UniProtKB/TrEMBL annotation:
One of its GO terms (cellular component) is plasma membrane. The lineage of its organism: Bacteria, Pseudomonadati, Pseudomonadota, Alphaproteobacteria, Hyphomicrobiales. This is Transglycosylase. Belongs to the UPF0410 family. It is found in: Cell membrane. InterPro entries: Transgly_assoc (IPR007341).
Length: 89
């Protein structure tokens, strides 16, 4: 599988926006711009694996990908916060 330059830019953009939104939703657990991009991309992967198995469908397009990625990134940030604080949110 080959990803074009535009595809890489879209992935980075979605990851950046999703990571930034997740950092704003889950306050106090931001990781900087690079960390937020990585959390956003990981959140997108988590959401793309988890949501279809649960039967959750939001739609298609860039906005729905950002929503999926943000929800996945929020889940990841909450897990990281639970692990860091010893089980307290």
């Amino acid at each position: 599988m080959q990803i074009s330059n535009e595809g890489i830019l879209v992935i980075l953009f979605v990851g950046l926006v999703a990571g930034w939104l997740a950092g704003k939703i889950v306050r106090g657990t931001g990781f900087g711009i690079i960390g937020d991009i990585l959390v956003g991309i990981a959140g997108a992967l988590l959401a793309s694996l988890l949501f279809p198995k649960l039967g959750i469908r939001i739609g298609t397009g860039l906005v729905s990908e950002i929503v999926y990625s943000t929800i996945g990134a929020v889940i990841l940030l909450l897990i990281v916060r639970l692990l860091r604080t010893g089980g307290r949110l």
